Amino acid sequence: MDPILERFHALEEKVLSYNPSADIKRLSAAFQYADEAHAQQKRKDGSPYITHPLAVAEILADLDMDTDSLIAAMLHDCIEDTGATYEDIARQFGATVADLVEGVTKLTRMQYTSKEEEQMENLRKMFMAMAKDVRVILIKLCDRLHNMRTLMYKSERKQKEKALETMEIYAPIAHRLGMQRLKWELEDLSLQYLDPVGYKEITDELATRSSAHQEFMASIQEKITQRLAEDGIQAKVYGRMKHIYSIYRKMYAQNKTLDEIFDLYAFRVIVDDIPACYNVLGCIHDMYKPVLGRFKDYIGTPKPNGYQSLHTTVIGREGIPFEVQIRTFDMHQTAEYGVAAHWKYKQGMANTRLGSESTYEWIRKLLESQQDADAEEFVRTMKVDMFADEVFVFTPNGDVKSLPAGATPIDFAYSVHSAVGNQMTGAKVNGRLVPFDSVLQSGDIVEIITSKSAHGPSRDWMKICKSNEARNKIRQWFKKREENIATGRAAFENELRHLGLNLAAVVSSPDALGQVLKRMRFGTLEEMYAAIGYGGLSAQKVANRVKEELTRMGREEQRSQIVERVATSLAPDKTPARPRHSQSGIVVEGLDNCLVKFSRCCTPVPGDPVVGFITRGYGVSVHRADCPNADPARRKPEEAGRWVNVSWVESDQERYRTALEISAKDRDGLALDVAMALSAQKVRVSNLSARSQPDGFALVTLILEVKDREELNAVMNRLGQIQGVFLVNRAKG
Ligand code: MN
């Protein structure tokens, strides 16, 4: 008979032995289907391809797995390697099997490259998250185990690659799922390729001691068996060597020789119930001297993956230490097969307790729900979504990010870096542009498009994102932005003042500022303030630009003004103004005896360069030449003809009102010192008020009367010498 067919029949028998009601017909159909589908393919060693899926099914049968898993194992490479589709498989073998095959295919397509620890952890989680049905992982692990067993046929580079991947991804997953036997074999196979020399050193040394080892283990096994029988405890005792990779780790990581490894030998005592476990422990400690600090009660406190046992290390009369693990039959099943143990045809987990704080709560829930549940129900509950509240997505570089379920590109962007989120202008998922609120799926490759000129997040993003991290970073951005706007505005105002411009005035005549904003690509004034405050833009530069713009606009207005005057035959008066006595101390060019008042915005005093504006019905208003309200750049074109030259003359008026602003560090007695200084200068003050600022500074404003600019300068100098005062300014308009 065909040896492959023979192997399949052996498999059939094995399945029937642990599951007499198994649907062998479907299994047989799957075998034939796969055999035909892979007919043209060969394994690297030259054998027909079907030997691989058959072997995977055999390994699963060793775990006493259910028929659907075996069928899926048989078909697991069909979608990937042959023309078969999901629909084909679903039609013939049902949706469950098709789902399993598709799940395995998905995991097969995943690419892993060696990464740092945290990255590996994410990959492992993602691996598990992508398989909604745990059986998918079991099939994948068995698939990998068979490929590792036959790795000698691959190229050396492929060997190293697969071995590393197995060590970093598959063995830890087997560990997580509590499948110790599978894990050990995967690790030993990987080590063989990753460090052939180290591997050989250990196996050689173990081989030379082999007969001594056998003898030692046999004697201990016999002694324990005998003693337990005397005490009336029903137990099975097994001895074994530690697996090679764990010896390797101890020898190299802890720098020990083979003789120094405590638990090179391990014995297992398997009993019926938990009280018997503790009885056995008592006997062992009576027979041998326990090593201090090596006793562990994993029955009282199970490991996160559900593992339960009592561990102790003792020293025999020969002086050789060895470990004893004591557990019930149920615990043993869980320890050896992990999750897979739960598919076993005959269960008996009623006595099993698992830690409720376990990370793998789902295993515990599973075990609970599984009591009294029929097989069908059990398989359904096993389809747990292990990471229902997480998705795992890739960066374009292949890094994995773990995000909450429902996460969007915004969450992703902020998980990479706040700057990426803040500068995000678009997002691509698997190469396609998507809206910001699209929901990411495990396995998606996400790429964020950023721009340095992006205007930052919008407040809506806080509603769209799912992670607290993103929400906090967006909130932070807005908070920072408020601060930036405030500092930016202050810096801009200061620079304008240096240029003799006033912020309020610049802002209230938006033409020039609007031009500047437009040219610098700012949508709003706030954006510009924020950019200055953030330090990305020089306030001086913007202020200069505003000034240039004002000048440019001013020149244009002057031109149109001349044109207008010619047109209305109102030629400007060329006669120079004759200085004459005036009541106000001001003469207006071309106008005699007109009403003159001093503007309240800049309160000019004699000596200040001044300019006049013919108001409608209130005479001529006199401004300082550097008053923002008199700035040629800001004058309205239709009023161009109203601006007139004025100058100071000797006058009857003795004193002029003007306003000052004093900036100082806030302190007690500041206003008093100012008042004292003014009275010492014999200056008449009509108003003085001091206001504390929230930032610890104070602003003192005062209105005083002086004879002229000279006197004013002297007063300002004196005020500047008061302790804590750092700025004395003419009041702005
Ligand atoms: Mn395969």
Please summarize what this structure is.
By secondary structure, the chain is an alpha+beta fold.
Explain what the structure shows:
The protein is α+β, with helices and mostly antiparallel strands and 733 residues long. The strands form six sheets. Strands 1, 2, 3, 4, 5 and 6 form a six-stranded mixed sheet that branches. It has a four-stranded mixed sheet with strand order 13-15-14-16, with no helix packed on it. The relative contact order is 0.05. The model is unreliable at 344-386 and 566-581 (pLDDT under 50). The structure holds manganese (II) ion.
Write the topology of this structure.
Elements: H1 3-18, H2 24-37, H3 51-62, H4 67-75, H5 78-81, H6 86-93, H7 95-109, H8 117-130, H9 134-149, H10 156-176, H11 180-194, H12 196-208, H13 210-230, E1 235-241, H14 244-253, E2 265-271, H15 274-287, E3 289-290, E4 296-297, E5 310-315, E6 321-328, H16 329-337, H17 361-370, H18 375-382, E7 390-394, E8 400-404, H19 409-416, H20 418-422, E9 424-429, E10 432-434, E11 446-450, H21 461-464, H22 468-498, H23 503-508, H24 510-519, H25 525-534, H26 539-567, E12 586-588, E13 596-598, E14 610-614, E15 620-624, E16 643-644, E17 646-648, E18 656-665, H27 670-680, E19 684-692, E20 697-706, H28 709-720, E21 725-730
Parallel strand pairs: 2-6, 13-15
Antiparallel strand pairs: 1-2, 3-5, 4-5, 5-6, 7-8, 9-10, 9-11, 12-17, 14-15, 14-16, 18-20, 18-21, 19-20
Helix pairs in contact: 1-2, 1-3, 2-4, 3-4, 3-9, 4-7, 4-9, 6-7, 7-9, 8-10, 9-10, 9-11, 10-11, 11-12, 12-14, 19-22, 22-25, 22-26, 24-26
The structure holds manganese (II) ion.
Manganese (II) ion is lined by residues 52, 76-77, 143.
